[in-house]
């Protein structure tokens, strides 16, 4: 079919015009046209390679060929050059009363088809990106979105790709074309499931009926983060997509995808909380991880009551893993009650200044009691260890560990059917000593290490399992194992 | 179309032991005939149940008429059976809706689905009707991928989505079509307005 371009000067001129309208350079246009024709004309390609080998040119890409050499093999370079400059001049210097040059393509359905054919040949030669982009660029070039419908473009594009090159073919307009809205509801659900939070947000804005439908579908999202610094806040959906809120004199500036918007009279963190609330209001949202980081060094700028209000709805939030980095554990107590008990699996916290009273309230919460994993860093866990004994896995730092604590661990924690593993880091050697008192003989002391390393085994009665207690320096790790 | 020149879907014959080599014949609504292996049919719950219920022997397959699939055309059915043959013997995924679905589109499927939206939607419709779970998954994923990073206006163009106004107009038209009296009343009302009457009653 590339022959068609080669042998039909008018069609070739339409292709050159399209490239000019799309702002392509003369070199690139020439190489595109040559590539398209060569790729689709094996004998011309062979002749070029042969010629090229005579000249001992490295074959990198078709357009690296000597221009004058392939000029005669593919298209006449002089004619090409003339057409290109004629179109460039007419594009840049439109005379008064003259019609835009794009009209040549816009008003002639066959010229438009040639353009689609040319784009499909480029696509076949891997010179083009996704099909919708090709369509958008084509529409931009002809300067009118209404001339060409996507369905029309797609129909011709795939016809050409399939080798059906009849430009005079007429579509049966009466023929039923299947559309998205013809799909059974189960299929629509299946499609919606693959759409992420941002694409769904765009889809619900297309029409009310789709909004009703899409908002009724479960939405799984991996990570949603709220980060608040002293002067800036951030709501992030993934590593690449986030909204930034910066303090301004009269309120804040919101930046999403490079688009800035000023919001008057609203502090930056309050705007971030409002947007977070609008995302979380969907009761069908299932978050794998919700991470909230509050980095306010001095007086905490974010009001924790506002944070609590942003997370409070008539429904619980479906959050599997909660990560919090904050000054005080008071933040946790404002967040945890809003999360769905049982669905919340992991609580991962970093506090520099834990507050005893808020932790006491926390231990009574059903969300705490039904969670499975707990990791705490930044400061010591200063409360009775029994509050951790329902977890499957936990990691904490302690000031010290007494023999009484280890005994209780043996009596309560080791009898929990759920418990699998824990890592406890003690500030001094009290823990290691208490374990030696309580468990007696160790099994193995690692050689060639200056660190104190001992392993104890504690068999679980009436089972083939045991607990492996690995003491390294002041830290120890307990793991359930099978014999 | 006769059996001899029916389009037969490519099959890797060496992969099937001789004694189990059983084929079925299907016919699309535009009378195109396909021969499909038993193992490939298992990907479609609907067809699998159908052939089990029929209990055909190899002779029956040749002697009796091809099984008609009345609401799918040949072009679509060809894609469906090509997919089934390529993925025959693979486990059929089970989805309980509790976890996010992770579906990758293999290269073969991507090439098969390099088709226009009209045909893609027909393929989805067929996969749903024939209950081919994984084909439905990959084709729906492809449709979802098209939405990625598009603005609402672009989504309307890609998916041919009507705007709210068009939706309303279509609804009104459908209602009027159902109830001719409503249109008459409307016309009468317009007529009276033209004649200068302020009130309909």
TrEMBL record, chain A:
Domain F-box: 177-223
Cited InterPro entries: DUF38/FTH_CAE_spp, F-box-like_dom_sf, F-box_dom, FB224, Mos1_HTH
Record Pfam families: F-box (PF00646), FTH (PF01827), HTH_48 (PF17906)
GO biological process, alphabetically ordered: innate immune response
Domain of life assignment: Eukaryota
Listed name of the protein: F-box domain-containing protein
Lineage of the organism: Eukaryota, Metazoa, Ecdysozoa, Nematoda, Chromadorea
UniProtKB/TrEMBL annotation, chain B:
Keyword Transmembrane helix among UniProt keywords: no
Domain of life: Eukaryota
Domain SKP1 component dimerisation intervals: 134-178
Ranges of residues in domain SKP1 component POZ: 26-88
Family: Belongs to the SKP1 family.
PANTHER family: SKP1 (PTHR11165)
Protein name per its UniProtKB record: Skp1-related protein
């Amino acid at each position: 079919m590339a022959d068609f371009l080669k042998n039909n000067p008018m069609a070739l001129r339409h292709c050159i015009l399209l490239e000019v309208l799309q702002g392509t350079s003369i070199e690139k246009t020439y190489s595109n046209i040559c590539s398209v024709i060569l790729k689709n004309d094996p004998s011309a390609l062979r002749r070029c390679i042969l010629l090229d080998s005579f000249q001992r040119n490295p074959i990198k890409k078709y357009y690296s060929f000597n221009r004058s050499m392939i000029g005669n093999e593919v298209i006449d370079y002089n004619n090409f050059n003339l057409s290109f400059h004629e179109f460039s001049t007419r594009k840049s210097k439109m005379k008064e009363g003259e019609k835009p040059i794009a009209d040549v393509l816009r008003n002639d359905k066959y010229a438009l088809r040639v353009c689609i054919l040319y784009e499909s040949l480029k696509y076949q030669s891997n010179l083009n990106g996704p099909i919708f982009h090709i369509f958008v660029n084509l529409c931009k070039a002809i300067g009118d979105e209404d001339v060409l419908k996507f369905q029309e473009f797609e129909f011709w594009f795939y016809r050409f790709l399939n080798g059906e090159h009849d430009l005079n073919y007429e579509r049966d307009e009466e023929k039923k074309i299947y559309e998205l809205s013809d799909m059974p509801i189960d299929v629509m659900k299946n499609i919606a499931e693959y759409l992420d939070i941002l694409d769904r947000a765009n889809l619900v804005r297309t029409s009310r009926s789709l909004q009703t439908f899409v908002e009724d579908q479960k939405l799984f999202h991996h990570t949603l983060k709220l980060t608040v610094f002293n002067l800036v806040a951030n709501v992030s959906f993934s590593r690449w997509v986030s909204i930034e809120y910066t303090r301004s004199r009269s309120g804040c500036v919101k930046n999403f995808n490079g688009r800035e918007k000023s919001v008057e009279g609203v502090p930056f963190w309050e705007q971030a909380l409002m947007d977070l609330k609008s995302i979380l209001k969907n009761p069908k949202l299932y978050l794998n991880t919700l991470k909230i980081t509050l980095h306010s060094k001095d007086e905490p700028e974010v009001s924790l009551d506002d944070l609590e209000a942003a997370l409070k709805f008539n429904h619980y939030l479906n959050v599997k893993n909660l990560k919090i980095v904050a000054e005080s554990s008071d933040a946790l107590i404002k967040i945890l009650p809003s999360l769905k008990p049982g669905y919340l699996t992991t609580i991962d916290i970093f506090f520099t200044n834990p507050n005893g009273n808020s932790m006491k309230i926390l231990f009574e919460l059903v969300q705490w009691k039904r969670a499975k994993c707990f990791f705490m860093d930044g400061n010591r866990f200063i409360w009775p260890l029994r509050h951790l004994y329902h977890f499957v896995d936990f990691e904490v730092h302690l000031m010290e560990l007494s023999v009484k604590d280890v005994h209780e661990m043996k009596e309560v924690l080791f009898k929990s059917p759920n418990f699998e593993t824990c890592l406890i880091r003690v500030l001094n050697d009290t823990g290691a000593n208490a374990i030696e008192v309580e468990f007696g003989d160790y099994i193995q002391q690692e050689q060639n290490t200056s660190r104190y390393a001992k392993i104890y085994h504690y068999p679980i009665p009436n089972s083939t399992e045991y607990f492996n207690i690995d003491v390294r320096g002041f830290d120890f790790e307990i793991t359930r194992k099978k014999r | 179309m006769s059996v001899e020149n029916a389009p037969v879907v490519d099959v890797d014959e060496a992969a099937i032991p001789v004694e189990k080599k059983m084929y079925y014949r299907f016919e699309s609504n535009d009378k195109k005939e396909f021969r499909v292996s038993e193992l490939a049919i298992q990907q479609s719950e609907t067809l699998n149940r159908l052939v089990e219920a029929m209990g055909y022997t190899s002779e029956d397959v040749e002697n009796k008429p091809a099984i008609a699939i009345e609401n799918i055309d040949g072009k679509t059915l060809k894609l469906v059976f090509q997919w089934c043959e390529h993925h025959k013997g693979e486990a059929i995924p089970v989805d309980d809706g509790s976890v996010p679905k992770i579906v990758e589109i293999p290269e073969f499927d991507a090439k098969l689905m390099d088709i226009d939206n009209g045909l893609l939607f027909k393929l989805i419709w067929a996969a749903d009707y024939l209950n081919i779970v994984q084909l439905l998954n990959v084709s729906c994923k492809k449709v979802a991928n098209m939405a990625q990073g598009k603005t609402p206006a672009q989504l309307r163009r890609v998916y041919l989505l009507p705007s709210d106004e068009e939706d309303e107009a279509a609804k009104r038209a459908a209602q009027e079509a159902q109830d001719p009296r409503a249109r008459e009343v409307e016309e009468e009302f317009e007529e009276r307005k033209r004649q200068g009457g302020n009130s309909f009653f």
